[in-house]
Amino acid sequence: MSKDYKVQMIELFKKWHEEQIIEDENSYSLTQPNLGEREADYNRFKNSFVADGCIDYDQYYQSDKKVLFILKEPAICNRNNPAKPHLEAIENQIDNHWFKALMEKGGAEDKKYYDRFNSIIETLGVNQESVALMNINKRGGSGATDDKRLFAYLSHYENRIKDEIKLLNPTIIISCIGTGKTSKQLFDLNNNDYISISYANNKTAWCFLKTYNGAKVYGMYHPASRPPLEEYKTIFKILIEK
Predict the structure, then answer these.
(1) Mind spelling out the 3-state secondary structure of the chain?
(2) Is the pLDDT of residue 144 over 90?
């Protein structure tokens, strides 16, 4: 059965990629201000697609508690990075995506991300193999996210984004995309969904709680955020007790 889900994910990504390639070049969701004027950079960005998904499809779909992390976008449009995994065939990407490699290698390439993902996974009491990750913007970015562009991308590809969430069918969603327009539209947030969390010497974190298609959604800080690891753990532990 898990193989069927994997095949469906590949088919979804291929259709999504085809739509990106023919997107109107004047669309704001396609702009990438940090690429400069070089045509090669623009075309690389325009045609890129970064697959994501489960660490282990078999164990994920057999799990009673399926956890999905949602992030904004992968940082792949960097002139200084010669690797181009975002231009590989989607069938290859889905077996070797960034999150899968990060968790299987124990954070050898990016310990900060690994430690923060793992702290949430441990707090929830699930195995890493019961976890998946998806980025909103599959085209990728250059580092600091342009939230206006991210919102434009969500608006343009909202059906595809929701199709991926539906296919992954999580019971728990950890949203790491902030508390602004993108999360408001995706999860249909209202003022009552936001909560403030006091932690570590009267610091305050703004998060949210929501239900989406039967899944509990925790609006949590991005794993690259500033709070030290122990404070990051504390914020999430308080959040899930709300």
Answers:
(1) CHHHHHHHHHHHHHHHHHHHHCCCCCCHHHCCHHHCCCHHHHHHHHHCCCCCEECCHHHHHHCCCCEEEEECCCECCCCCCCCCHHHCCHHHHCCCCHHHHHHHCCCCCCHHHHHHHHHHHHHHCCCHHHEEEEECCCCCECCCCCHHHHHHHHHHHHHHHHHHHHHHCCCEEEECCCCCHHHHHHHCCCHHHEEEEEECCCEEEEEEEEEECCEEEEECCCCCCCCCHHHHHHHHHHHHCC
(2) no
What ranges do the domains of the chain cover?
2-240
34-69 tens-digit pLDDT: 655 566 666 777 788 999 999 999 999 999 999 999
Check whether 228 has a pLDDT greater than 60.
Answer: yes
Q: Is the sign of the CA dihedral 86, 143, 96, 5 positive or negative?
A: negative
Task: Indicate the average pLDDT of the chain.
Answer: 90
> Was domain 2-240 assigned CATH 3.40.470?
yes
pLDDT band at residue 141 under the 50/70/90 scheme: confident
CB atoms within 10 A of CB 9: 23
Q: Are strands 67-71 and 131-135 parallel, antiparallel or unpaired?
A: parallel
Tell me the C-alpha distance between 90 and 69, whole Å.
20
